[in-house]
Amino acid sequence: ARYPKITNELLQSLVKYGACQPFEKDMTNNTFPVDPKTKRHFSSSYYFIKNSMNEITKYHWMSYSIIQNVVYCHPCWLFGDNATKQSIWVSGYSDWKHLTQSAIFHCNSKQHFR
């Protein structure tokens, strides 16, 4: 989630390929790294949300950084204004206990829609 200035060529590739969304099978030992303090870890189930009608929707915007073990908002990272760039959803979010609630809040936020 941390890169120097993004060239137009790189931006086009990042848009074309979309958010990085690895699954457990893509990880070493088929699991995401465990936070030593909280004993929690990311799960690919966080890419999906079930609405009140039990319909499952995918968060296409959520991206997972294998190197940093954080999630971030792919479009906010690429296209956000200066205020959005200060968001935890751009620098990286790793509070796995509260990720579901935070993701719902973020995708309905004004920042996300800028």
Automatic annotation (TrEMBL):
<protein>
    <recommendedName>
        <fullName>Zinc finger MYM-type protein 5</fullName>
    </recommendedName>
</protein>
